[in-house]
């Protein structure tokens, strides 16, 4: 059991409180002196002093000193005002076991100390990591510098060897025939005495020249090659009628489509000659098609049908004429004729290529619309799905197909 200290002395000013707690013969440890805003503790086993302060103090700026067998506190008040007493009204309860307020204050202080210790360890770890990174960086820089010096030395060695080889090659070259050979080297060229009976002076010279050539070839192999001369490369691309790339196209189908277009133009030129009583512009199916389109826009569907009929009579190989006439028959409620014209247009729009994709979509939609008007919803749905397959991103076609599917499910 601790011995509670009851004798203490204190004095105050408006801004501070000075408290002295005698600890007799015992000397408190550093961790035995504890102070928070409203709580004070001095532990010097077996003696113990605790106090709940009358008002909060600034624990960060307050200080404590251990000297002459006592602990002196200088507590700075948070509010400059005189205290009625040092202890709060319930200060005596802190001197009994089982005090919750003191335990909470100690736990809070311990947590603060632990947090500060963690921050210190984190700071120390960060500084250690920075030092390690700096040492690693210096090591890498030293390795780079060593490699650079090594490469420089190798280049200088190679240059010196190359210069020595060039000097040797220059000394070993034979003199011209007109140049007088010095007396000191006459014995070097007089090799017939060492070559045997079958050797000659010309053979010795040939060997000398050949040895010199081999040496020069070796020098050429070791030397750095000269840079290549600049030039230009011409690239010719294959002309394409269709917008798709050649690797993505279907060549047989596209050629068949081009042949059909050429045949249609030939028929136009042949049939115009047979129609003598028409005006010059009326012999042109394109002019008739434009005229029918203008009549369709004004709502004169019968006149538009007549224009398309004459254009088809001149040339029955143009799928756009059947498509436009099918649109007129839909407005006139000639549903069977609209189906026939759409089917005829689809027959002419073969093979399926990128150039006739939009026309095939229109043909499927107009035939599907006519079939749905005749309450043949299953057949009409097939045409809408075929159009959606050509243009899978068309939201309008997708919505119409879903409506037709709902009608079919409702009928079932």
UniProtKB/TrEMBL annotation:
Residue stretches of each TPR repeat: 361-394
GO biological process: determination of left/right symmetry; epithelial cilium movement involved in extracellular fluid movement; heart development; inner dynein arm assembly; nervous system development; outer dynein arm assembly
Entry GO CC: dynein axonemal particle; extracellular region; neuron projection; nucleus
Any one GO MF annotation of this record: nuclear estrogen receptor binding
Matches recorded under InterPro entries: CS_dom (IPR007052), CS_DYX1C1 (IPR037894), Dynein_assembly_factor_4 (IPR052004), HSP20-like_chaperone (IPR008978), TPR-like_helical_dom_sf (IPR011990), TPR_rpt (IPR019734)
Signal peptide: none
Residues annotated as domain CS: 3-87
Region annotation Disordered: where it falls in the sequence: 92-116
Biased composition range(s): Low complexity: 101-115
Localisation per UniProt entry: Cell projection, Neuron projection; Dynein axonemal particle; Nucleus
Domain of life: Eukaryota
PANTHER family with a match to the protein in the record: DYNEIN ASSEMBLY FACTOR 4, AXONEMAL (PTHR46492), DYNEIN AXONEMAL ASSEMBLY FACTOR 4 (PTHR46492:SF1)
Protein name: Dynein axonemal assembly factor 4
Source species: Python bivittatus
